[in-house]
Amino acid sequence: MKYLEKASLSKIFIILFHIVGFVGFSLPHLQDFFISLVPFHLLLMAGILIANQKEYNKNFWLGISFIAVAGYLVEVVGVATGKIFGFYVYGETLGFKLANVPLLIGVNWVILVFAVGAVLKKYFKHMRTLKSAVAAVILVFIDFLIEPVAVKFDYWSWQDSLIPLQNFIGWFFVSFIFMRIYYELEFRKSNPVALTLVISQILFFIGLNLTMV
């Protein structure tokens, strides 16, 4: 019962924070304040997701650590070379940067991989490669929604102000590798708030895209 209560409260928090965030980003006089809260929002969502994991073992923590570090390092290489996602630079919205990449970008990868991974866990049983490919497509779709918002609010910016096709191709292959590793690690992947978090993020970015039309 306590576990269900925690999950229910967590879902309410996720939905409310995304609604409040949408309102804040939509109103010009509140935008600067809400932009300053983006790093805290990412940490909060990651904390809620991890807190609702049904059980913890060394493989779970190994997965969290690997995705966070690898996600950050992929972005470091991507920013430095332009060979993974194209040529882009990070702005100030995501907070403290090391090697020109916000440390929190690794947290963002954890949120996306572990949330989408948990949502798809019961589908395509024993077909981890197919499941990883489907998850990667979903992550590319989420990135497609994020990109215009990210550029407008100084998450990052692209060379010549154009989002290249290479970005989405790179996202697919990086996401596929991360998802494949996620499904290969043996731990219980059930998470009762994962679907709420994924849907909230998708609706949040769809809504912001519509306000920018």
TrEMBL record:
Keyword Transmembrane: yes
Residues that span the membrane, as ranges: 12-27, 33-51, 60-81, 101-120, 132-151, 163-181, 193-212
Entry keyword Transmembrane: yes
Name of the featured protein: Carotenoid biosynthesis protein
Source species taxonomy: Bacteria, Pseudomonadati, Bacteroidota, Sphingobacteriia, Sphingobacteriales
Pfam families: Caroten_synth (PF04240)
Keywords: Membrane, Transmembrane, Transmembrane helix
